[in-house]
Amino acid sequence: MRDLSAGPRVLLRRLRELMAEPLEPQERLDQIVRQIAANMVAEVCSFYVLRADGALELFATEGLNKDAVHLAQLKMGQGLVGTIAASARSLNLSDAQSHPAFTYLPETGEEIYNSFMGVPILRAGRSLGVLVVQNKARRKYREDEVEALETTSMILAEMIAAGELKQITRPGLELDLNRPVTIEGDAYGDGIGLGHVILHEPRIVVTELLNDDIDAELQRLEEALGSLRISIDNMLSRRDVSMEGEHRAVLEAYRMFAHDRGWVRKLEEAIRNGLTCEAAVEKVQSDTRARMIHMTDSYLRERLHDFDDLANRLLRQLTGFVPGSKGLPQDAIIVARAMGAAELLDYPREAIRGLVLEDGAVTSHVVIVARAMGIPVVGQVIGIASLAENRDSIIVDGEDGVVHLRPLQDVQDAYADKVRFRAKRQEQFRALRTVEPRTRDGKYITLQMNAGLLVDLPQLSESGASGIGLFRTELQFMIASTMPKVDEQESLYRNVLRQAAGSPVTFRTLDIGGDKVVPYFRSAEEENPALGWRAIRFSLDRPGLLRTQLRALLKAAAGAELKLMLPMITEVNELRLARELLNKEVRHLSRFGYQLPRSLQFGAMLEVPSLLWQLEELMEEVDFVSVGSNDLFQFLMAVDRGNSRVADRFDTLGRPFLRVLRQIVEVANRTNTTLTLCGEIAGKPLSAMALLGIGFRNISMSPAAIGPVKSMLLSLDLGKLEEALLPMIADTSSEKTVREFLMDFADANGVSL
Ligand code: PEP
Ligand code: MG
């Protein structure tokens, strides 16, 4: 029997020699197609490259009319070649001209060829071009011949990716791979980063494409697969994932794939065809991606992620790749499909200018950590990981949620201006840090910041905030892979208080559930998680958990002031139940001789509308109330805060919401209760101005917002605003929206927005 793999191996060896020879790019391509045609006993071999304008241009041919090179072209989706590129699938036809997509290009003289085999040139699942062989005689190419041509096409993919074809691209035209791309995503972390792409998932380089010794390479594969399986088994047997849960389901899927015969067979076949293990993994991964990427079934798309992840793990086993270990540029912008928080921390912070994710959500751990580190982040950037190449220039705009890959010069210039402008503004805000936050007419406003991790703390002095108005304790739980123990909680709170150095900190007890997912608490699927078993409801049903946290807080604040507040209070009675638990902890600690906090303030978040009809009792029960305007608005207007289709549908500065807020202020004033507000609206100068206008004197926001809000209030005559705003809100006949009124007021009175 003929050794099926001998042909491809001879060919690959020959191609490797060609790659090493000092040839001009066109000459190299011509020789490559000649070699392929000879080796495959084909009369024609042609190579088409996808240009930025979507045309597939003939770059080299053996057998067709050579004058057509760089002239003949097909559109993406047009003809057999265009179909292959568009679908990223191979075509194997014994009677090409009867195929519905067949298009005849007269300049090539290809009418006499009946058999046709074409393969996409893939990189990370995306088509860069097409490689074709043709024969006059009608024949169907064997599976192993298709496989061999696909393997060969990887060399061409590397040539394109390495930029070698730029020199023979006609002036004024651009290859698709170098095309500037702008993708809109979601802004997750403010700031603008200019720099160069670092792909988080490794991609191999051409030098290691072809193997010298099949058996040795098969052996390497077996060993790497062995270690991969062991590492997955180890992860599965670790205590923190051995319970039922998502982690486990994902790892079980990995384990299944790691033993998948089909996958292993494809890898072995690619190695027998002459590829190194790394190249084989890349090839099989690319083929799988190309096949699965168009699937709409979300279950199967999830499986694609698993496969991708597994392939990346295997590549890491093979290459010993450690993220960021070698040659990280000083302006690295990390591009990843998805990423864990710990993986981000593997990169040196000083080199990272931005983070771009194909997946991700505002509440993804990696996003929370990146934001806390002050890294601009854009997520939901569909396709970026396949479009970007290492070292491509890239701009991350975390202000507008846009990514510009390989930006043109004018875009780069515009952004350089934008960055300069931002830096200047930042400097002005920094100068305000020590300026007292008093309005032009002398009213003192307390500006506090929101925080959730220890990394946020330096911002306290950098922003000039007078304290932390909201410390989201759930973040520690969200980024941990196992539940933080009591001493870990205590240690965080102690550190926070130490670093706050006497500035007040308001700790909010666990607010998990809803959009805040903690992987190790598995509860039943909920149809409406925002209205479900979350926050204080969860804490009261799991009193052990709440008591543990209260104990950690009490101990951490020994001898100091402790301010704590409870999230999602719906009925005043919940506060009483929580206070009983707090009292139990206080008694418990004093019985065992622990020092207690010097003073204790007990507060409630006002974010569920039912409290609006219990305002008097509520204020009676607590030392302070903090309005969580994000949730209060969500529940009041019945708009999901995480659903971009409706989240911006109604105006937070509309009359209904402002009337509600005004009502809260009135009761707080009447009952002499300290009132703050810590939702997003506190952080925008215009809405912060509205809040002051309806009577708020204490607001808490993200640290970056302190400067702009302070700059606004320093220029504000608050008395004058109040006088005009309150009637405006009560007005039932005005055509003018409150937002318009506020903008006009700012304009007319020189308020800096
Ligand atoms: C809010 O709901 O407004 C709030 C501050 O809390 P969170 O955003 O954490 O739900
Ligand atoms: Mg809330």
Keywords:
binds phosphoenolpyruvate, elongated, 22 strands, 26 helices, binds magnesium ion, 8-stranded mixed β-sheet, 753 residues, single chain, alpha/beta
Descriptive notes:
The protein has 753 residues and is of the alpha/beta class. The chain has 26 helices and 22 strands. Strand 5 and strand 6 form a beta hairpin. Helix 23 (685-693) packs across helix 24 (703-714). It starts with 5 loop residues before the first helix and ends with a helix. Mean pLDDT is 88; it is low at 239-247. The structure holds phosphoenolpyruvate and magnesium ion.
Q: How are the strands of the largest sheet arranged?
A: 7-14-13-9-10-11-12-8
Would you report the number of β strands?
22
Global geometry:
elongated
What Rg is obtained from the alpha carbons, in whole angstroms? 31 Å
**Terminal Cα span:** 81 Å
The averaged pLDDT comes out at: 88
Strand content: 15-25%
**What is bound: which ligands?**
phosphoenolpyruvate, magnesium ion
Structural class based on helices, strands and sheet pairing: alpha/beta
Count of helical regions? 26
Q: Strand count, sense and closure of the main sheet?
A: 8 strands, mixed
Spans of at least 5 consecutive residues whose pLDDT stays below 50 are: 239-247
Helix content: 40-55%
